[in-house]
Structures
1.
Amino acid sequence: MPVDPAPVASPGDSPGDSSDGGAPGRNPADGGEHRSGLIYAVLAYGLWGILPLYFLLLLPAGPFEIVAWRVLFTLVFCVLLIVVTRTWRPFLAVLRKPRIVWIMGLAGVLIFINWQTYVLAALSGHVVEAALGYFINPIVTVFLGVLVLRERLRRLQWIAIGISLIAVVVLTVGYGSLPWISLVLAFSFGFYGLIKKRVGREVDAVTGLTLETAWLAPVAIVQLIVVAGISGLTFGTVSPWHTVGLLSAGVVTAVPLLLFASAARRLPLTTLGLVQFFAPVLQFLVGVFILGEPMPLERWIGFGLVWVALVILTADMIASGRAPRRASLEPT
């Protein structure tokens, strides 16, 4: 679950921690810090990678009910976390900045689109297509840098974008329609990352998620009312375990985020950028080998082209010594 490109100290982090690995008081090359950071990163991306299985366990709840409860219970969890950790000060400081509050509302809209599309994909047999969205997200982020931020790309970056466009064409021809799930996920998260990049140093992870879900809470309530009127709500009517599963949506959303925030302080961004592919790889494996989604030849060719583009992009990143945008590191 993506939230902040520049998270600040979360519970359990030492005051000297820094996201750039260069805070005073500790050695950035410390082996223990690196190992713990790697563990946090793998846990975060691992949890994000198996999210489709979690959403499938919530059936017969539909995608609109699941996302609505996810918004509301995430808000409750974040408020409780702020109360327990007594971190009201940064939250109230952000509330005194109307511009930031409105920006977080826009970020909330984008992440709502991302969440809703992802859950729809997970419950409709399109987990592999959702994984494709997160594979191409780093490439989309680079592309948006050109369109929105007027950045200049190096030759290998242009090659990676070109190969990705060919991959989309191959998948479109093979299936007779655009892979819209992949594109919506990649672009909604890409624009979300651009917005969060602008406010990342002013809003910590928990505050950001709290504000985003607070903006979305009225939408979630309306969504639940509509679902109740059309098909009826499943919350509290299926089984105790199902109810617990829906109640856990807030924890399932926030815990990987906090793990990621801790990892970001302990790992160089280059390392974190490489680990980010762990989540879509797991989603791909879940879709193909656990859920049995079809992988015809054109899909293998399309994925193969995307993977080639990612290898080129990663090689260019390492060779140039430039870290990827952190906004592209946090999956849903």
2.
Amino acid sequence: MKKALCLILAALMLFAVTGCNNNTASGGTVKLGIPGGNSLTPQEIIDGFVAEYSGKYNIEIEDTPWGEFKTKLNLGIASGTAPALYIMDSGYVADAGYSGANEDLKPLIDRDLNADEYVSAIFSGTDMNGHVWGVPHAMNATMIFYNKDLFDKKGVEYPAADWTWDDMLEKAKALSYDEDGDGKNDYYGISWANNITVGWLPRMLSHGLEPVNADFTKAQLDTPEVRAAWEEHRTWKYDWKIMPDDDFGTLYPNWWQGKIAMMIGVAANINTFEANAPDLNYDVQVIPVGPKGSNNCVYVPNMWAIYSRADETSKEAAWDFIKYYYNEESQEICSKYNKGGFPIRKSVYENMGETKPANIKGIIEGIDQRGHTLSEGPGWSEWRTIIDKAYTDYISEKPTKSFDQIMTDVQADVQRVLDEANAKLAQ
């Protein structure tokens, strides 16, 4: 059973409960099933929980391959046999919460946790009505990675916590150059991706723009301001040539091989970089203050969620695990085990010693000061995919439609999804 435990509460840990009586088998056995994959949750925490609670619950682990998990979860929610406790991205958890599939954790937090002991991200799963559909497993924050050797080579100052969008662009221009004289840059100042997390959302937020309004009823995409923000990406790439071309090669190898001075990324990238380039001389900094005076620290809080239709014993076991995961000892284990898994408990990150990258604490503080999740709301999974595709087309070298048509279509398509999602909520 230890082996099964070790295998899961790993990659993106998940408690799945199957069996009769809505997730609790006869005889009081609580089955905890976790998707297979590389671990993001230390074995020590799982073993510690089982040791402490084995007298209270008859715990049985059931392995589910990670690749099958979301499909199985969807089927489980539809059939009433979904996991009692599961972990999934914040957008999925929000969709499940709005549909009534998740337990509201706000009463449990108020009863059992002192919110002052945790970073504000503990409430990142809160919807517009005050329900908390999930709590974070860790904070996978967006940040700017920068290669200190490339900065030193050109005599460019490292980015500071109060840097601006203009500072970033000037540095990127100074760090983009053709070294061998073949007419094409060998080094690029910055790489900026296309998707919601490390692409269009932090860019729009830096310009003071949101993709939808506060109550998730109106799309806010076909505007001159949004067009200007999207067009800026094209300018960086095709006019200033501070970003690599689409055919420049795979992003991460060019980063750890020292061809890109700055790149937008997330905390989870740290482990990948350490595995592939442990001697890379780099650090991280928060997203700079944008053109409209806006700054943000977008983060992806993969969420623990409790299935609302689970039986009471299984819900109690699920909440006991969350509390155990959030205690001081477990959070300290998390902070040491996974360099990209920022702790939720304040005392743990405040007492962190030397880290690589050195500015991890600054990023965590950035989340608490100006954190922004992925604008999760009704219909999120569908409308954010629509924007992903539209943005990718807009900034491509040869868009499939005119820019006007791309913006007209994305506005209409996102509005349709919002209307449908809100209509379902009203039923």
